[in-house]
Design brief:
The chain is of the alpha+beta class. The chain is 25% helix and 26% strand.
């Protein structure tokens, strides 16, 4: 009985101590959020006051060189046909009028998913936390996962033909490190949810990406750096490359076949994917209206 009262007193004291701590932290958090909001408003105000509005995007003026300019127009590309780096995994023909084209390779893998259950104890007012690990399989563009799952050692992952994809990709096996601004995702997030938030490094083999060097808005050219960094403007509406441009088979990788959607895959028609199966998607972005 005495222990029960003692634990409850400690619990009450902790709760009381948390209240003033929350009151102290709240102004700090509010100040930080408001400060970020003020910074964005200052940037918008700066653009409004300093940007030079270009009325005719087809007639750039030397007077605006070095100035912050504002214009609206449709992104266009010249007659240049876009193609990926030379590789057996490429489509059979270059794609005309494409702004960006990418090849995304995925592999079907096992993932470890943890779920915690907290049970209140009737004696001592404590809690018991039980963690249960389960297996989930899904497609991932991040390549083969751990050969054995950390907490489920009997569950293994196969690399399939992933190494052969790398050697036939035409890309160097090493690529620049991902941007430091890449968000860190929770380790137990479902693969399909992580795919929505996580952006695969398409410069790393066996993926590939190509950006049209002739992209422009009227008389204003768009550099590869702008198209790459401003994904929300130029890389949102991805379309599948026409299936007739995807090869029916690849001599160097006879395991691959073209499915009804225009993907290359090791999954036989009508079958369920198995661990180690791969799939290659070909997509592109066309020109669109842009605010620059």
């Amino acid at each position: 009985m005495h222990n029960f009262i003692f634990y409850h007193l400690i619990y009450i004291m902790v709760c009381i101590s948390i209240i003033p701590l929350s009151l102290l932290l709240s102004p700090c958090l509010m100040w930080k959020n408001e400060g970020r909001h003020v910074t964005e408003l200052r940037r918008i105000d700066f653009c409004k006051n300093k940007a030079v509005v270009v009325p005719d995007i087809n007639m750039p003026s030397d007077d605006n060189t070095g100035q912050l300019v504002h214009f609206v127009g449709k992104v266009s590309v010249d007659d240049e046909e876009l193609e990926l780096l030379p590789s057996p995994l490429n489509i059979t023909s270059s794609l005309p009028k494409a702004l960006v084209m990418k090849r995304t390779c995925m592999i079907y893998q096992k993932f470890e998913h943890s779920e915690q259950q907290v049970q209140n104890q009737t004696i001592g007012a404590g809690q018991t936390t039980t963690t249960t690990f389960t297996v989930k399989e899904d497609w991932t563009a991040d390549g083969p996962q751990a050969e054995r799952l950390p907490h489920l050692n009997t569950e293994t992952n196969s690399r399939g033909i992933w190494d052969e994809l790398i050697s036939n990709s035409g890309n160097p096996e090493t690529a620049p490190s991902p941007s430091p601004n890449q968000p860190q995702l929770p380790p137990n997030m479902p693969p399909e949810m992580a795919a929505l938030l996580h952006q695969t490094d398409l410069t790393k083999a066996p993926h590939s990406i190509a950006i049209n060097s002739s992209a422009h808005v009227g008389g204003f050219g768009l550099t590869e750096d702008i198209i790459t960094t401003e994904k929300a403007v130029f890389q949102t509406e991805w379309l599948p490359v026409p299936a007739e441009l995807v090869p029916d088979e690849i001599e160097a990788l006879p395991e691959l076949r073209k499915d009804r959607y225009g993907n290359l895959t090791t999954v036989e028609e009508g079958d369920q994917p198995q661990n180690g199966d791969v799939m290659i998607k070909y997509e592109y972005c066309a020109g669109k209206s842009a605010l620059v």
